[in-house]
Amino acid sequence: MSREVREESSALHALGLLAGDELARFRRECHADPALREVSCVLREVTAHLVHWAPPYAAPEALRERLLEGIDLRRGTAGRPGREASGREPAG
């Protein structure tokens, strides 16, 4: 694994974005390389603190609506009767 790939994989791992074969390969590399393991550990610690440094942000309602519509489309529930435009079940 090249230095560039190791650094990128460490960052992706710290953000929880490695999966499947990439994750397995990275874990093998970490097991075999104490320096990579240390870098990975430091990056995970830093990313864990990022959430506390970022200012609070409320996503726009339009984004929420698009996400819910996408979820409905994947589930096959888009436009089902009894569902408000907001994606919430009607108050009853």
Walk me through the structure:
The protein is mainly alpha-helical and 92 residues long. It contains 4 helices and no strands. The model has no long low-confidence stretch (mean pLDDT 83).
How large, in whole angstroms, is the Cα Rg? 20 Å
Q: Give the N-to-C terminal Cα separation.
A: 58 Å
Count of individual helical segments: 4
Q: Classify the beta-strand content into a percent band.
A: under 5%
**How many structural domains in the coordinates?**
1
Pattern of helices and strands:
HHHH
Q: Class by helix and strand content?
A: mainly alpha
Q: Pick out the low-confidence regions.
A: none
- In one word, what is the shape? flat
**Number of separate strands:** 0
- Helical content (DSSP H or I, runs of 4+): 55-70%
Largest sheet: none
Overall mean pLDDT: 83
Summarize the structure.
The protein is mainly alpha-helical.
Main attributes of the structure:
65% helix; 92 residues; mainly alpha; flat
Task: Write the SSE topology.
Elements: H1 3-14, H2 20-32, H3 34-53, H4 61-75
